[in-house]
Amino acid sequence: MHEAIARLRAEGLARIDQAATNEALEAVRLALLGRKGELTRLLRGLVDLEPAQRPAVGAALNELKLEFGAALGRRQSELAEHHTAAAVCDLTLPGLPPVVLGTAHPLPSVLEEICDIFYGMGYDRDEGPEVELEYYNFTALNFPPDHPARDLQDTFFLGTDILLRTQTSPVQVRTMERRSPPLAYVFPGRVYRNENADASHSSEFFQIEGLRVDRDISLVDLRETVAAFVGSFFGGERPTRFRPHYFPFTEPSVEVDMQCMKCGGRGCGICGQSGWLEIMGAGMVHPNVFKAVGYPDDAYTGFAFGMGIDRLAMLKYGIDDIRLFYENDLRFLRQFRGVL
């Protein structure tokens, strides 16, 4: 019996190694281990042996069964790998259609480009919730109780004091509550306002806020920061100007304009014949905001600024309708392949 087992082992392993297809390998498996297979017949022949011989022969047959099973598994894996390699390298297969590569959406690409510019100036980045408390969105930012921005026509309220944030400025407050000066941060994110959509307005859009707080920060520092950003983002020397304005959370407050890229300041349809394009609101952080976050009186000063990422992208790439960013029209998005 031991000779028969040794012969079956040698022959069986050779037949497994020689199987060239999955079908041939299955035929070998059935011939060896099937109900009428050669190893099965030897196992059934144990009853004809002397009782003293059965344990050793049975153990040898079970060992051979396991060996055959392992060899069959290895050969099956080898055939699968060979089939995959052959399929990849088969030059007779029909060619694939041209692969159309995707491209990054312009808005998140512009957002990251802006953040990278401020990283280079030493700014860090922080983010906050889009569903915000009225306290952080308005009260802590020095909005009076009767301010028009609190009205339902401007804000999406989800409850008595819960809303969709109308600006990323609440993240400034949350960051200052957790950290002490000196600090310099940008806060990008999506914001929501109850407005009718048109070529220049949307009910949801992207915004980025900036904040720098330290001792002896002045409006001069703000102006230098704005000039450095505009030059990096739009390229070249771009004249800017500050116009007095009002924001509840800054004092003094300014609107920042950049010389029109289309006409070079001469006046055209893009800039409304003024020669200037509004790009952001800014100002020195109001003392009441510092008071809300617990900063000591007269210990620190700081500036803040806010920009619409959608508007900056429109200016940079000459897009005249903000709605194009949100319509997922591939004809529009493919224009940015190789640009972003």
Strand content: 15-25%
Mean pLDDT: 86
Largest beta-sheet details: 7 strands, mixed
- CATH class term of the largest domain: Alpha Beta
Distance between the termini: 76 Å
Spatial arrangement of strands, main beta sheet: 1-4-5-9-8-7-6
Short description:
This protein is an alpha+beta fold and about 350 residues long. The chain has helices at about 1-20, 20-35, 40-45, 55-90, 105-120, 135, 170-180, 220-235, 285-295, 310-315, 330-335; strands spanning about 125, 130-135, 160-165, 185-190, 205-215, 240-245, 250-260, 275-285, 300-310.
Overview of the structural elements:
- The protein has 340 residues and is an alpha+beta fold.
- It folds into two domains: 2-89, no CATH class; 106-336, BirA Bifunctional Protein, domain 2.
- Helix content is 40%, strand content 19%.
- The protein has helices at 2-18, 22-33, 38-44, 54-89, 106-119, 134-137, 169-178, 219-234, 287-293, 309-317, 330-333, and strands at residues 124-125, 131-133, 162-164, 183-192, 204-214, 240-247, 250-259, 276-285, 301-308.
- The strands form two sheets. It has a seven-stranded mixed β-sheet, sandwiched between helices.
- β6 (240-247) and β7 (250-259) form a beta hairpin.
- α1 (2-18) runs parallel beside α4, α2 packs antiparallel against α4 (54-89) and α7 packs across α9 (287-293).
- The longest helix is centred in the first third of the chain and has 36 residues, at 54-89.
- It is elongated.
- The protein starts with a helix and ends in a 7-residue tail after the last helix.
